[in-house]
Amino acid sequence: METASFTRNYASEFHKTTDAIEAMDGTGKNLGFQAAVELAVDLLVQVELGKRRIYIVGNGGSAAIASHAAIDLWKNGGIPAHTFNDSSLLTCISNDIGFEDVFAAPLEMFAAEGDLVICISSSGNSADIVKACQAASRKNCHLVTLSGFSNANRIISLGELNFFVPSFSYGFVEILHQYILHCILDAKMYCVDSKDIFNKNLDL
């Protein structure tokens, strides 16, 4: 296939995948993307009003997405948000406890009831992300998951909100996880905070 044909096909498949994003509650009930974003916005408002915090975890590319989202949440959204991506923390927990607990252990220490934990995994099967979900539940935190690949993955029904990207392409899943998180925060800023997110950078 020529590059031009590939690019057209890539764009077409990406748009199809965007339109096919799924969102479920903890029972597996399909909520629809718009309704799920609305519920996620409600969670952000609840966290903000309750002066709670947000913790976001992910591996590799998902760790980068987590860091990006956390910065946007506190800088633009005014909600304290954190990741556990410090290299000393990651290597310490991995060495002393085990990599599967690399996010669960700090969540057990820092997360409190009413906080929001967002767990990101392209496959939805990473053991450390599964254990992070379980830790969030033990701490009585709100939990939102973002996953992809197979709809039989391990975290797809662990959260009270679960976003699923039906694609086996890492690129599509990672980009659309970023899109989902941006959409949730931008919806909160636009609909709740009355900030014009479409034109706020016009004069930069």
Which architecture per CATH? 3-Layer(aba) Sandwich
The low-confidence runs, each spanning 5 or more residues with pLDDT under 50, are none
Strand content: 5-15%
Q: Looking at CATH, which topology would you report?
A: Rossmann fold
Total separate domains: 1
| Class by SSE composition | alpha/beta
Helix amount: 40-55%
Describe what this molecule looks like in 3D.
This protein is an alpha/beta fold. It has one domain: Glucose-6-phosphate isomerase like protein, domain 1 (Rossmann fold, 3-Layer(aba) Sandwich). The chain contains seven helices and six strands; from the N terminus they run αβαβαβααβαββα. It has a six-stranded mixed β-sheet, sandwiched between helices. α3 (61-75) runs parallel beside α7. The longest helix is centred in the C-terminal third of the chain and has 22 residues, at 170-191. It is globular and about 50 Å long.
SSE order and pairing:
Blueprint: H1 3-19, E1 22-24, H2 33-49, E2 54-57, H3 61-75, E3 81-82, H4 87-96, H5 104-110, E4 116-120, H6 127-138, E5 142-148, E6 161-165, H7 170-191
Parallel strand pairs: 2-3, 2-4, 4-5, 5-6
Antiparallel strand pairs: 1-6
Give a nutshell description of this structure:
The protein has 204 residues and is an alpha/beta fold.
What brief labels describe this structure?
single chain, 204 residues, alpha/beta, Rossmann fold, six-stranded mixed β-sheet, 7 helices, 6 strands, 49% helix, globular
